[in-house]
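Hi everyone,

Forwarding the result from last night's run.
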Amino acid sequence: MEAEKKKLLRKMVKPFEKTSYTKSTIQIINTLLPLLALLIASGLLYQLHWSLAILCSAVAAIFLIRTFIIFHDACHGSYLKKQKHNDLLGNVTGFLTFFPYRKWRREHLIHHAGSGNLEKRGIGDIWVMTVTEYKCASTTKRCLYKIYRNPFVMFVLGPFFLVLISNRFNAKDAKLGEKRNTWLNNIVLIILYGSLIYLLGAGQFFAIFAPMVFIAGMIGIWLFYIQHTFEDSYFEEPSEWDYVKAAIEGSSYYKLPKLIHWITGNIGYHHVHHLNPRIPNYALEATHKNVKPLHHATSITLIESLSSLKFKLYDEQKKCFITFKEFSLRYKMA
């Protein structure tokens, strides 16, 4: 993509950065209030039968996903006009979704700054090994990678790991303010949910909260996975890496039904989001529709996306993802 075209494209999407307090407020109301109402309803339904509480909790997952999208936009400073307001909203919605604000914000911004850059993988993204790395890796490391990339581990065990372990600890190089933010998040979570377990009992507590958190976490990991894992995704060495190409060619346009776009806060328009993270979620669809060059992004339907589960390694020579079976046949290695 030529320099002038890339510059023009970024200029074309810039007008959509504008934050609408009206739209943001409406989205907060139609997300957080139903979430709270469903949690209360789940608690009341438990008195009738535990299965009703679980069903209600599963529905609440829809609004927990939307809450995470609000949290996500606050991390980018795109949801409200003043940064201090984004920080406050990010801390509140981060608590509700079990994500410490400062920790995740730093890691996610690192992901955006180097998405598709082969030397900047490993922070805030899905673990991806290249063919060369896998060939040179020890048997133990290849085994660990295979376990990590197993769909059951990634999407079923993943939400538990994310909520209970990954989000609870900071990196060694994290600054004191970030560490304090995570510690405070952990302490408040322990106090609040510990109190609820004591008052409600473990059975009722987990019937109300566990299905919601698990389903939302599983869908969230899937969305993050599919947005960058498709056959001809973009990865380049630092000398060849380009921010705009990484956004358009390395982030998918996930063509979902209208209702699912609403549930997921339009994050399926991921190519738009990576091109300009300052665009709030409710403006992503309009940006895609009105900026014609964005129509050339890789589009994936819901059915087509299921095939991406087979992609495990990135072949930096052929510029595409391949399966373990293809690797084994090509390089005669298990």
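The longest helix spans residues 50-76.

Cheers,
N.
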